[in-house]
Amino acid sequence: MPEIRIKNISKTYVSEFKREKKIAVENFSLTIHSAESFGIIGRNGAGKSTTIKMIMGFIKPDKGDIIIDDKKPSDPDSRLNVGYLPENPYFYDNLSAEELLKFSSYTSGLDKKTAEKRINTLLNQVGLYAVRKQRLRTYSKGMTQRVGICFALIHDPDIIILDEPMSGLDPFGRKMVIDLIEDLKKRGKTILFCSHILNDVERICDRVAIMDSGTLKGIFTKQHVLENEGMEKLFLTLVREK
Amino acid sequence: MIPKMVSLIFLSFKEGVRERALIGIGLFSLFMMGSAFVGVSLFMRDLHKVSVDINLSAITLAGLLLTFFVSINLISKDIDKHTIYCVLSKPFSRSQYIWGKYLGIMLLIVTAFCMLTLCSSVNLFLIKSQYDVYFQTFSWLEFYKAIYSELLMLFLLNAIVLFFSTITTSSFITLLFSLSIYVAGQTIEEVVLFLKTRSAADMALSETINTIIDITQYILPNLSVFDLKVHAAHAIPISYGYLFSITCYSLVYSVVLLLSASIIFNRRELN
């Protein structure tokens, strides 16, 4: 049973004053199966984040359909079993990491005891336990990113959507995130991963979609990528410099 | 299990209560109340009126500053900085977000009002014990009724702020629109009265202008009905019927605004 189905979605942004149109995503279709780790790669402005925002219901596609966990994104319950990390996450900076994660737990239906246990485990895992009571405004970009990962994973969701999870992380942070994602993969989670760091995608994902100028250039299995001299060559062949 | 709406309300409350602006607003109000304590000695008569007026004005001003500087930022910042993603990535509908935010802000304002009312009561009690002879007609009940009506005004004003936050993209425009509605709402009754009496005396207004005035009067919230400072200062009894009618007015108007905000916000793209 597929977890995320995207069928012929298109999205055009219209600027407020000049009424200029910019096609963000055009006729994009994709099916991400259960327990699969799927990567979307493309350069900046390729439409990766727009696609993810449409899956999360933050923006609506002009046409086409999205089904996530058998529900439409407009249905709040479609996000019950989803963990989401936005690109450059920004949280309520007057709260502490612990308070933010409590909010994430309670709104995802965890009880107090389970929530506390999960918060402590995750904060220990990402190395933020010692600073859990500090306000988020005092956190560095990398620390905020790690809080974002905890925020997404707190309720142990089956579908995990990560938009540029490595951004702002140092090599240790990146390794930690990769280990975390690989652990999730082993536990049979469905992962949608969006990045322009090709090595990470190649390492983590079972299948990869390459996007350029809002269109899908192709979907490849990990085996296909490895047989064809790696992700970088494949990417550069499909996405030409403008 | 803690209901998710309660979590959202407390999230907004905590975020607001830790805003640095809140400390400034609190200190400013306490300073105003303190100045009433010192300043009344400069007056030769009507000391109770002056002290009640200053105390009520301090509370009202604190409420307005909270609305225009804290509430506006709480909502606009969510949209500008995309903190809204962290709420909407959870199973919340956009309407729930609007109501949760509104109730969180109202919880903040009610808390602030309770604290300021306490400070104000202590302040008035001290002034009263010092100048008891001037406080023969003073009524604590009317004083608290006036505070309650100011709170009702802020319920409505915050619904206006939230409504504009959903239709504009900048906190400055929200501030501008909300401030304009506040000024118009406070003065509309007097302006209409002036125009109608002036037109009767000097020259008649055209039918169209009369219709526009009437429509505007009904669309804009009449915020002057919540201003009961004069009643409190002069100990003029405020009937419970009147309090009930302004409570209904504030609640119905706020609910209509919040429902409209929910409908608009449901269609808004959060990119």
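The helical segments of chain A are 48-56, 97-107, 112-125, 141-153, 171-186, 198-204, 222-227, 230-238.
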